[in-house]
C-alpha cells in the first residue's frame, strides 16, 4: 500500500470518527429532557421556590396561580385571586417569605399589587404606595422591594408597610426591570431609554450609567458576587458590565436576524448566563467570563416571556412561552 493511499485511508477514518461524534452530540441534544408543566396560554411570569423543589407561575387574565413540583405534578392551584383583591390580572410574582407572595398586575393593569398567603390564596393586604408598572426585586436582608413605577422612576419600599424609602430618578423613559445587589446596598434599573443605571440605595445617588445598547434595555441582573451585571436589549445583544466603573466587559450580538433579547439571568453559581430571545423562543447559555456559547436550545413555542429562570442547582432553565411552561435540562460545557 502506497503512502498516499494510507494517508487517504487515515484521513477518511478521522472524518468518519468526527461524523460519528457529531451524530452522537446531535442525538444527545435532540433527546434533551424537557418537562412541560402546562399547555395553556396566558402564563407570563415564573420562578423557582422552596429551594428549587417547586415552580410557581402566574396565569395573567385567568387570575390563577399554579404551583408544581419539578417533576411536573401540580401541588396546588390558587384561583380567584383577582376576586379577593383589586387586581385585574396577575403579572410578576415576588416571594417575600416561604408563605407570602407579592403579585403585581400584568402590563395591561394599572399598577396595583397585593400580598397573598401562598398556602391558601387568601389576601393578606393590598400593597400600598405608588403604582408598580414594571420589574420588581426583593432584598431579604433589609426587607424591602424595588419596582419600576410611574414617571420614569423606580421606588424602594418597605416590604411590609409599603412606605417609600427611596425614589430613583434619572431615566428619560419608562423603567423595564430592576434588581438588587446581593448585599442590598446597590440597586440597578433598566429602561426603554437604552441604558441601565446603578444606584446607591441609601442616598439614591446614581453611581453609574451603563451605555452601549442601541434600543430599549429589557432586563438587568446582578451577578451573585455583586461585581458585575448583565443586560439584555431589544437590539438583540447581551452585555456584561463592571459595576465599579460602568465599563462594558463583553457583549454578544444577535444570534439570529431580528432577535429581541427579553431576559438574561445569572446562574446562582455565577458560572454562566442564560439569555432568551423573545421572538424565536431560543435560549443561549453563555460563559460568564467571555460570553462564549456553551449551550443552546429552542423552547417549545415562540414569544419567550420574562419568566426565564435558572434552577438553584444550575441544571435546568424555566421558560414560559405562548405554548406553556417548560423546564429544560441544560448542558453548559
Report on the architecture of this protein.
- A hairpin with a 5-residue loop joins strand 16 (196-200) and strand 17.
- The chain has 333 residues and is mostly beta strands.
- The protein has one helix at residues 3-30; strands at 34-38, 43-49, 54-59, 64-69, 74-78, 93-95, 100-104, 113-117, 123-126, 134-139, 144-148, 154-158, 164-168, 175-180, 186-191, 196-200, 206-210, 217-222, 228-233, 238-242, 248-252, 261-266, 272-277, 282-287, 293-298, 309-310, 316-321, 324-329.
- The protein folds into 2 domains: 1-31; 38-329, YVTN repeat-like/Quinoprotein amine dehydrogenase (Methylamine Dehydrogenase, Chain H, 7 Propeller), CATH 2.130.10.10.
- It has a 4-stranded antiparallel β-sheet with strand order 1-28-27-26, with no helix packed on it.
- It is built from 1 helix and 28 strands.
